[in-house]
Task: inverse folding
């Protein structure tokens, strides 16, 4: 099917696009991973990418902050990714600056081997912020935003590595928030967490969308259904269907989407 | 931990209570209109049906959406299934109220006033109180009240049988009186059905509260 119809690009309903992807082809060496992706992602919404392993959803996510630049054989064959109307693959785009605006949280929590406080303050210190009161303010604000403040406020100087897995993941989210991104990318952020920690991260995602645009890759269709406003289904590097989450899970248009979400795939 | 989507269950519960109130109001004023030969009440009862039907559609949609998107389990999934079944019972109770009002209007227009040849009032008092209590036992999660509602259904059934026997005599033929008797039988049957739906609601509440069916007899 064509992936460039207007309904596929925007999904149904209204919203203000902050990420616009057009005619996007991506390859690892000779192996094409993404084919002619056209999509708008709305600001201050949660957009979920679903699809079987190897469908390209994580590759696509990593295109939004140019994480794929770190892979030698990765290349854009065609198309563009615009964030706030700037093509992020333009030669004059500062990748470090881009990643300040587009934060990322990974599958496995990766706190620095530092104190809880220093994990949050790290990005700000690199930016040159030295004033303790300013750092204190941001650390508290970010930990509160990540629903972690009450749990750690009395042990900010303890090692982050002593926290539970769920707390570490929320710390990583708080750390990403410290540099005031517009967009937060999450690559299977709950796959290593137990159900309670998963529920806390999902609650956090729901809270954060008031201020941030969130794009999440998840293998859990129930999670995509619970947390996202829009869902995109990928298969073999193609965007098969993109729509409001209600429509994708209650009445998808494409039989491949129906087959995947109902477990009849393959 | 309360999840961000749990308020959707509260919204569903509110809709179900509102639907119960509307169905109960429709039944009560339809019967009052019949008993008092009051065309205004009859018309008011007729006008409530669309709102009740609309609420059933809303509850069905919200229930299917919750099942699809929120993966409910245990008491949450029981609540959803009870919401679907209860809204169906309330919609049917609303239909019976509509039918009572329609028949009452026919009689009133044809005969000028409504004779009440049998004691519809006694039967309707039980049926309406059953509906009111069925909604209350759901709202207040009152298991004992739910059981009491179920018990009262037998008396309504008995009264309807009496009415049927009494009204069947002289119900043949094309006379106005025969037509009135047939329509009064249908009204009596509708009241009996309203009591059945109230009983169903009470049984659904017992299932909601205990996780067990109200009756062990599958028949």
Result:
């Amino acid at each position: 099917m064509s992936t460039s119809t207007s309904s596929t690009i925007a999904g149904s309903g209204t919203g203000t696009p902050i990420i616009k992807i057009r005619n996007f082809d991506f390859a690892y060496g000779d192996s094409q991973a993404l084919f002619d992706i056209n999509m708008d992602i709305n600001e201050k919404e949660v957009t979920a990418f679903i699809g079987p392993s190897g469908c390209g959803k994580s590759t696509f996510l990593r295109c939004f902050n140019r994480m794929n630049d770190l892979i030698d054989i990765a290349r854009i064959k065609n198309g563009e990714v615009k964030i706030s109307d700037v093509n992020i693959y333009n030669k004059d785009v500062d990748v470090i600056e881009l990643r300040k605006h587009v934060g990322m949280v990974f599958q496995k929590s990766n706190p620095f081997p530092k104190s809880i406080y220093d994990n949050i303050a790290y990005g700000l210190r690199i930016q040159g912020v030295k004033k303790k009161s300013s750092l204190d303010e941001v650390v508290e604000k970010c930990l509160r935003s990540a629903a972690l403040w009450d749990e750690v406020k009395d042990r900010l100087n303890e090692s982050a590595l002593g926290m539970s897995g769920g707390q570490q993941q929320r710390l990583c989210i708080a750390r990403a928030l410290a540099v005031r991104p517009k967009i937060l990318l999450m690559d299977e952020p709950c796959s290593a967490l137990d159900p309670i920690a998963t529920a806390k991260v999902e609650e956090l995602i729901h809270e954060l969308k008031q201020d941030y645009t969130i794009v999440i890759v998840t293998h859990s269709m129930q999670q995509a259904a619970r947390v996202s406003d829009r869902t995109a289904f990928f298969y073999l590097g193609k965007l098969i269907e993109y729509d409001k989450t209600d429509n994708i899970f209650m009445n998808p248009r494409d039989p491949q989407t129906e087959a995947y979400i109902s477990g009849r795939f393959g | 931990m309360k999840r961000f989507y749990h308020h959707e269950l509260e919204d569903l519960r509110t809709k179900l209570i509102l639907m119960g109130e509307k169905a109960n109001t429709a039944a009560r004023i339809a019967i009052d209109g019949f008993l008092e030969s009051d065309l205004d009440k009859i018309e008011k009862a007729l006008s409530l049906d669309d709102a009740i039907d609309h609420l059933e559609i809303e509850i069905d949609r919200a229930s299917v959406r919750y099942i699809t998107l929120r993966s409910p389990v245990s008491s949450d999934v029981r609540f959803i299934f009870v919401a679907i079944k209860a809204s169906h019972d309330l919609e049917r109770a609303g239909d019976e109220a509509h039918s009572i009002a329609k028949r009452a209007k026919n009689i009133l227009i044809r005969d000028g006033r409504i004779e009440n040849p049998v004691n519809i009032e006694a039967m309707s008092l039980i049926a309406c109180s059953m509906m009111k209590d069925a909604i209350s036992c759901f709202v207040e999660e009152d298991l004992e009240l739910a059981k009491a509602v179920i018990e009262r259904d037998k008396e309504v059934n008995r009264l309807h049988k009496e009415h049927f026997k009494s009204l069947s005599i002289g119900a043949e033929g094309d006379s106005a009186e025969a037509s009135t008797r047939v329509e009064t039988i249908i009204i009596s049957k509708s009241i009996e059905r309203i009591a059945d739906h109230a009983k169903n609601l009470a049984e659904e509440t017992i299932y909601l509260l205990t996780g067990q069916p109200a009756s062990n007899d599958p028949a």
Summary: Helices of chain B lie at 7-36, 39-47, 49-70, 74-111, 120-139, 143-168, 176-210. Residues 7-210 of chain B form a domain with the Methane Monooxygenase Hydroxylase; Chain G, domain 1 fold (CATH 1.20.58.220). Chain B touches chain A through ten residues (CB under 8 Å). Chain B has a mean pLDDT of 92.
